[in-house]
Amino acid sequence: MALTEKQKRFADEYLIDLNATRAYKVAYQSCKKDETARANGSRLLTNANVASYVEQRMKAREKRTEIKQDWVLEELRKIASANGTDFSQIVEEPIIKKGAYVTDPATGQVKKYQTVKFIPTKELPEEKRAAIAAIKETKFGIAVETYDRLKALELLGRHLGMFKDKVEVSGLENEKSKLDDLIQQMRDGKK
C-alpha cells in the first residue's frame, strides 16, 4: 500500500532531524498541540508503510553519504581516546641569558627549566588529529582544544547499552500511553 501525501511529507520531514513531533506538525498543519503531535508522530512511525519508507530512505542516504554507524563509532572512539599528552609534552630546556647558558655556580651544571612543547600537527597520526577541534593563538600562547571527550564516552556507552535512563510512571492511563509511545520511539531508534 502506498503512502498518503501527508504520510510521505511526515516521513520526509522526520528524516531531516528525526523529530517526529516537529515532522507531524509540518505534515498535519491543523495539529497545534505538541502532545498530540508527539503521540500521533510516534504512532505514524510504527505504521508499516511509513517505517519501510523511512528505513529505505535512511539506507539510501547511508549509501550516498558513506556515513555508517561504524564510521560514527570510530570517530567517537578517536575523540574518547585522545588526551593532552598526544599533542604536547613537558621537556627540559637550558636557561639562556645574553646568549650564554646559565650554570649553577656550585655544580657547574647548566640550569634548566620545564616547558611545554607542542608536537607539530604534521607529525601527529590522523587518528589524533581527528580529535582536535581548534588550535588557537591566545595571549598566553598556543591552545589546542579537543572535542568533548566525556560526551564521546557517554555516546559510546549509550551505544553499548551501559547507561539506562529511568522513567517514572504514575497510575494514570494517559501516562501509560506516553510511556508506550516513549518505548516505541526507543525501539525505533535502535534499528
What can you see in these coordinates?
This protein has two domains: 5-67 and 176-189, no CATH class; 70-152, no CATH class. It is α+β, with helices and mostly antiparallel strands and 191 residues long. It contains eight helices and six strands. The chain has a two-stranded antiparallel sheet with strand order 1-4. Strands 2-3 form a two-stranded antiparallel ribbon. A two-stranded antiparallel ribbon has the order 5-6. The chain is elongated, with a radius of gyration of 27 Å.
For this entry, give a set of tags.
Terminase small subunit, Terminase_ssu, two-stranded antiparallel sheet, 51% helix, 191 residues, 16% strand, 2 domains, two-stranded antiparallel ribbon, SPP1-like_terminase
Compact overview of the structure:
This protein has 191 residues and is an alpha+beta fold.
Topology:
Blueprint: H1 5-17, H2 20-27, H3 34-46, H4 48-65, H5 69-81, E1 88-94, E2 96-97, E3 100-101, E4 112-118, H6 126-129, E5 132-138, E6 141-146, H7 149-159, H8 173-189
Antiparallel strand pairs: 1-4, 2-3, 5-6
Protein name: Terminase small subunit
Pfam families: Terminase_2
Keywords: Viral genome packaging, Viral release from host cell
